[in-house]
Amino acid sequence: MVLDNIDKKLINLLQKDSKQTTKKLSLQLNLSVTAVYERIKKLEKEKVIENYVAIINKNKIGKSFLVFCHIKLVQHAKEYVTTFEREVIELAEVSECFHVSGDYDYILKIYVENMEAYRDFMITKLTAIKYIGSTHSIFTIGNVKNTTEINLD
After folding, report:
1. Could you give the number of structural domains in the chain?
2. What residues have CB less than 8 Å from 36, skipping those under 6 apart?
3. Which of 49, 57, 66, 139 has its Cα between 20 and 30 A from that of 112?
């Protein structure tokens, strides 16, 4: 699907606030409400827009301790990779998992309450996964930039 400039503007607006009404969007885009509605439905059908979510304040729910954990598998055998990926998907504390190149095989983004909760998570859940050769944890000190938006300009 080729996105025109109006599609790009619409996507940028929805990324900033997906709860905007089609009326409000139509005013910003100089389109009719029906045209905006049809464009949104087309973007959803084509899976350009995959989902709508609520972004929560991690401090308010007691999950503000953010850890990036690098994982190195024992080896890159298909069984090791598929076993690790299948099991890490089930860990609620892991919000994102990336298979990466470089010194490590995976980078996990993990939210927990505090250092003690992370230690418990490491001992009882993460290192219980077979085929992990080593881990390297990085604890965040502060948040400089955090966005879910991908600019289409």
Report:
1. 2
2. 10, 22, 25, 26, 29
3. 49
63 plus 37 within the same structural domain = no
Nearest CA among 7, 8, 6 for reference residue 152: 8
Q: Edge-to-edge, what's the strand order for the sheet holding 132-139?
A: 94-99, 106-112, 65-73, 132-139
In a domain, 148, yes or no: no
Structural contact between residues 14 and 50, judged by C-beta atoms closer than 8 angstroms: no
DSSP SS3 for 16: helix
Establish if 147 belongs to a structural domain.
no
Domain that holds residue 15: 5-45
This prediction's pTM: 0.89
Q: Over the stretch 74-127, which tens digit does the pLDDT of each residue have?
A: 999 999 999 999 999 999 999 999 999 999 999 999 999 999 999 999 999 999
The C-alpha atoms of residue 96 and residue 50 are separated, in whole angstroms, by 17
- Same domain? For 65 and 10 the reply is no
